Amino acid sequence: MSTGSVKAIAAAALLALVGCAPGQALASAAPHGETALQKKLFAAGAKRFTFDGWAGPAFPVWTYRSADTPADAPVLFVFHGVKRDADKYLGEWIGLARKYRIALIVPEYSREAFPGVRSYSHGWFTEKDGTPRPADKWSFAAIEPVFAAVKAREGLTAETYALYGHSGGAQFVHRYILAGGGPHMGRAVSANAGSYAMPDPAVAWPFGLGGLPAGLWNPAKALALPVTVLLGTEDTDPNHPSLPRQPEAMAQGPYRLARGEAFYARARALAAAEHVGFGWSCALVPGVGHDNGGMAPVAVRILFGDAKPVAGGDCKPLSQ
Prior knowledge:
With 320 residues, the chain is of the alpha/beta class. The protein has helices spanning 3-18, 36-43, 86-100, 116-119, 143-154, 168-178, 219-222, 247-250, 256-274, 292-304; strands at 47-51, 59-64, 75-79, 103-107, 161-166, 185-191, 227-232, 281-285, 316-317. α3 (86-100) runs parallel beside α10 (292-304).
């Protein structure tokens, strides 16, 4: 049997195992040694590349765009939590991306490249000893270059991107917004964050705005953005294993639901006090706890569908 025949048979067997249609390109199949989940993602058409087009460390980026998603499709960044499980998050978003015809970008902030929460969801403004880092090496600084790189790789034409983060990813998203965001940033959903940077200069970053690098905080800009604080009504476990328990985090509330409601209320009050526009909204997902898979179907409707929470309104339930 020829080498080519052996390779063809092996490829067919792999495609059958992961449920890939016979006509799909072999290039989408997972390389040897990947997890079962990652094999399924590759077989479904997901891609992963190493991004090194910025001043910080190289890291993996997952992307997904279905065959019928057009070049002018909306682009959504999805940010994983503290487990750094970008593949799991992508798996929970692929079906929604197909349905709504959106292009996904899921950065994988690996522990190797981004050790600790300071290096990921807190922006990485300083080293562990407090030494300031150059602005082009902040974790927030990677978003715009990743957007440009994926647009080029996929032939996308979107002028803006949306943001979604859950848990640790929600910490990243809302802090990115408070720290100025990026010039191509559009809508955003922050879901079930464990702690917040309260819009309070008397509280030190990352739990408030104190010590934030000069020039980043612009209340008129940050508070006017179309941002939704999305909270599961059952995310009320005060003993959840990944719930931040620093004194500053505990001061925000006993569990994630309470902390999210407090954060939204503080932002709304600040907008009124500063006499600036307030584009934020707050929505509750009934019956869902700390679960990205339960929050994502509501988030996608807010970002690209028929769910329209009222800007400046109270936190109210949205059905799945």
